[in-house]
Amino acid sequence: MTHKIAILGASGYTGAELIRIIATHPSMEIVALAANSKAGKSMAEVFPHLRHLELPDLIKIDEIDFDNVDLVFCGLPHATSQKVIKALPSNVKVVDLSADFRLRDPEEYAKWYGGQHDAVDLQGEAVYGLTEFYREEIKNARLVAGTGCNAATGQFLLRPLIAAGVIDLDQIILDLKCAVSGAGRSLKENLLHAELSEGYNAYAVGGTHRHLGEFDQEFSAIAGREVKIQFTPHLLPVNRGILATGYVQGDAQAVYDTMVAAYKDEPFIEVLPFGETPSTHHVRGSNFCHIGVTKDRIDGRVILVAALDNLTKGSSGQAVQNANLMLGEAETAGLMLAPCFP
Amino acid sequence: MTHKIAILGASGYTGAELIRIIATHPSMEIVALAANSKAGKSMAEVFPHLRHLELPDLIKIDEIDFDNVDLVFCGLPHATSQKVIKALPSNVKVVDLSADFRLRDPEEYAKWYGGQHDAVDLQGEAVYGLTEFYREEIKNARLVAGTGCNAATGQFLLRPLIAAGVIDLDQIILDLKCAVSGAGRSLKENLLHAELSEGYNAYAVGGTHRHLGEFDQEFSAIAGREVKIQFTPHLLPVNRGILATGYVQGDAQAVYDTMVAAYKDEPFIEVLPFGETPSTHHVRGSNFCHIGVTKDRIDGRVILVAALDNLTKGSSGQAVQNANLMLGEAETAGLMLAPCFP
Amino acid sequence: MTHKIAILGASGYTGAELIRIIATHPSMEIVALAANSKAGKSMAEVFPHLRHLELPDLIKIDEIDFDNVDLVFCGLPHATSQKVIKALPSNVKVVDLSADFRLRDPEEYAKWYGGQHDAVDLQGEAVYGLTEFYREEIKNARLVAGTGCNAATGQFLLRPLIAAGVIDLDQIILDLKCAVSGAGRSLKENLLHAELSEGYNAYAVGGTHRHLGEFDQEFSAIAGREVKIQFTPHLLPVNRGILATGYVQGDAQAVYDTMVAAYKDEPFIEVLPFGETPSTHHVRGSNFCHIGVTKDRIDGRVILVAALDNLTKGSSGQAVQNANLMLGEAETAGLMLAPCFP
Amino acid sequence: MTHKIAILGASGYTGAELIRIIATHPSMEIVALAANSKAGKSMAEVFPHLRHLELPDLIKIDEIDFDNVDLVFCGLPHATSQKVIKALPSNVKVVDLSADFRLRDPEEYAKWYGGQHDAVDLQGEAVYGLTEFYREEIKNARLVAGTGCNAATGQFLLRPLIAAGVIDLDQIILDLKCAVSGAGRSLKENLLHAELSEGYNAYAVGGTHRHLGEFDQEFSAIAGREVKIQFTPHLLPVNRGILATGYVQGDAQAVYDTMVAAYKDEPFIEVLPFGETPSTHHVRGSNFCHIGVTKDRIDGRVILVAALDNLTKGSSGQAVQNANLMLGEAETAGLMLAPCFP
């Protein structure tokens, strides 16, 4: 059975990545592509790398006939997404890739995103889209909120350890490095090649990055108490990839065993042999996440490293993984693409 | 029906690219991987990006049971390849990715590769692997010689025009730019990141690049007279991609019409609208080749531009395309992976 | 004696590069920096790499006291520059880095830049700023028009050969590759890191690039007849550097001897040994231009390659070189910075 | 007065960087360049970017007439350096860029570098070359041991804070990112462009990097007790630059004030306004180090960030700074080169 798919916000990088994945998906068919600012154009004009595909031209959202759509991927900007999704017919399943439904608490939303939420009911209904940890809820959800790409990476490293109680909850540091496509296709001076290439810097230092809202919500829920981590993102001069280095305190072997047990049946999460560390090179363009655990020379200190592709496992791959579950397909359908190296 | 595949020289980039493609191929199964210098290792050690696949460990070539193999991809270095292929049992089909069987004339081989050929008989038997132009011969071939990656790119631009007689055969210039993976995984100072990144240079200037042997052989055969082109390769500070800029003399509209007609039924060759030019960004990681034709401001001058991925369409993708034909499968099987952008 | 310098358009890359050079110049002092859109800011805010220098804050152009200025570098956008320079007091020397005064013929200006010139008198008076070929005129000039960076590179390759009559004037092809900083600090989608890095493409194909106006003007003047070359620029995924590959027809030895003779006393132009080719790596951040001449395998064909840094020798370094002459200083003052490799 | 300089190990990146700096140094003259493996070649062959300089050809070390040399920069590999320096005449001043004399304790040397030291006397005599903290000793030293580039960066961040007692000495984490030139010009697979570009990884995870020997020695000496930090280096896909992110516990304002006070008179160390963070872009090719201090959202947590160029301030720039002091020159002589951005 083929599912009819619409993509809203198809002119951004997550939109393009969805199409790349769906291009070889066995049971999804794209029936509508919307991008208000580029309506009327063909995808070949907006993303020439998709030129070989037979795709509908870009239209405006309100031109879509949603009676003919089974599932919508919504890659619209934050704040816009909630307005649009609220207006969709209730029979359509939705995977949102924006930040609008990640936080369940309207006050937390207001704190991190600086405004009142326009669809508080949906905010409560939405299922948090970290597949490996919300699998059953996602199968039955109508609306799934894709996670932040940094938030996904950090949670893959830390959730099992917080749940198992094997690390000190007050001494968690996450030093994360994200590729430039994580910032989207927006015209900002610091995203120009000449400003970014051949250099490196931190940003949102001091605990101001919005993905902390997700960490706070999720980690506190798991622990049953408030958990606040330190989180410092850095901007990598590469196009794809997140590497997160976590500094935690606990017994290294217990940490490793917990990690192995947590992910032993997961198709996309690979825990490396104890003491090995992953690289973003080796997950590029794929839905895999590689995790390494190393004992520090100081007893009781452990270094965790996770690598994934922010556009795939961190965003559009995760979205397809969730859509597969919502549509009753195999979770891995269309997602076993091998990483593209070199 | 599943075909049993062996890859010789599996620890190089073309080997890795073959495995990446075959990972989602519907009817190929890898039964043996050989790399003499790394025999005994797992592929996850040699190429961690292939960690998720169940693959045989690397062994030595003489450890392979060729009775259990339908087709061999041979990614060994030039000169080694001919020795190994000569010794293979005659029932095994072979796609060679080296330069050893590209030139049919032993004297031309000696001129460009500097030594006598060890398997002159096979040299005569081998079919030149430029699929779009040798399709029928490849279907019946036992041994197919994969083309040079630069040679493929230049031929996609020039073969139809030489065959149609719409350009001046004595005024053909090919200014080509190739990514660093074209040089393989060899330890050379000029391939170090610090030597290559953020810079740009020409090499093999003056007509000394070995792929000229292929151009000479093929273009002269098509034209029925000696054709010698000027060919200058440059080294791009990127990992994948070839862009070839061709300067020819003829009527631009006739050139364009010839190109469109030549490729209108080809699944992997896309001729852009007249006056548009392709980019390597938009073919990365895929088996597609994009071609543009532009009229110069000087009457009678035409600029041709072709873009493809040297590891895929220029090498391992082409190899799988040929293997599909040799094995009676659909030519596009496993090869419709969309380009990976950004 | 210290010369008082003002820079207009100081928030762009050529402005920053001027300041970088002047930072260690023995006889220039920056007394005013103007950038209308960023007036009020410090240079450390706009270009943090200049943080260690004591520099005046950015102001608006009309806030500058030009009585206190000996020489103005004008790095304003095309078309703006002519209006501003026309209004400057006549005692101030001007080096313009825009395109406004490169073309002497108002009709040619209108043809390439699409509008009427606002300062036709100055257009006639301005000296073309290719130092090595207009040295004496520049010494006495009040207004010098900096050349296009591509135009400079192509002229270093071709002027001596056209002047000496050693090449066929109707068969000149210039295949040029320019780094992204050549496009300035403007917010365009194709200049984003994610769009540009790891790829490569041609642009302005077919003879539409504005620097052709300079080539036509200069080459025709030297030859005493109309000379039109073919010129195809490409966009390199690096921040600095131009490599131009020239295809000409003539005797290779004569071409080489002409080149050596032309540049033997030039401090910034290095002609490599016959048959060697330069790389942009080796001129980065410097005012040097490296030139190579190679004989093709086809008799009578010669390949020329030039490498320079578009921001230095192609723009701001050239500007300082010209200013040195206009101010009576040693031509090389402040410009002997060694290239920054790796 | 001009000082006669010899460089041993001139064919590596630190050798090239020394020559780049000395090229515009007012009082140093290079009289000998040694590189045993490339003896007989000109520098233009080994490093074409130095082509414009009049430099002696490369010779073997034992061909140097040390009577004619005032100061030697020794850029030889670890372990080789100590043998060569031991044999130098005692009148020659030496700045060593290797690791051989960084650790004063022979046992610590054996622990981190895995062998007995060949010149234990010199090991005791050598002054640790972190100029800002050993200035007076360096002025009178005959042998100065250049620091590790990572070690320098970490110490700029942490020494003032440890000395002032404003941070918890048992909770120091240093997450450091170093450019590829830090690994030198050696032929290793992981340094190839195709392996490194467009990716990112950690290495020497768990406290095994040799520069920890320097941290242990120096921080313990300052604190008057054993101080062990956690240190995780990462490999950046850029050619130059180190960014170190430090996580410490203490009062943010006290930390900031301590940092400002420590560096207020330093010509090369710039402490940014409270809450700002530096970038490696803005120190590239220069001897500057930019430092930022930010308060975390968690009370008592502070994030420190330092950026410098590993080849300049982290190695060859530091070496010239030390040589200036040893030779009685101004400390900043030849070192005020502005960073090269973009």
UniProtKB/TrEMBL annotation, chains A, B, C, D:
GO terms for molecular function: N-acetyl-gamma-glutamyl-phosphate reductase activity. Keywords: Amino-acid biosynthesis, Arginine biosynthesis, Cytoplasm, NADP, Oxidoreductase. Residues 4-141 form the Semialdehyde dehydrogenase NAD-binding domain. It is found in: Cytoplasm. Its EC number is 1.2.1.38. It catalyses: N-acetyl-L-glutamate 5-semialdehyde + phosphate + NADP(+) = N-acetyl-L-glutamyl 5-phosphate + NADPH + H(+). Pfam families: Semialdhyde_dh, Semialdhyde_dhC_1. Pathway: Amino-acid biosynthesis; L-arginine biosynthesis; N(2)-acetyl-L-ornithine from L-glutamate: step 3/4. Signal peptide: none annotated. Catalyzes the NADPH-dependent reduction of N-acetyl-5-glutamyl phosphate to yield N-acetyl-L-glutamate 5-semialdehyde. PANTHER family: N-ACETYL-GAMMA-GLUTAMYL-PHOSPHATE REDUCTASE, CHLOROPLASTIC-RELATED, N-ACETYL-GAMMA-GLUTAMYL-PHOSPHATE REDUCTASE, CHLOROPLASTIC-RELATED-RELATED. Belongs to the NAGSA dehydrogenase family. Type 1 subfamily. This is N-acetyl-gamma-glutamyl-phosphate reductase. It comes from Cognatishimia coralii. The lineage of its organism: Bacteria, Pseudomonadati, Pseudomonadota, Alphaproteobacteria, Rhodobacterales.
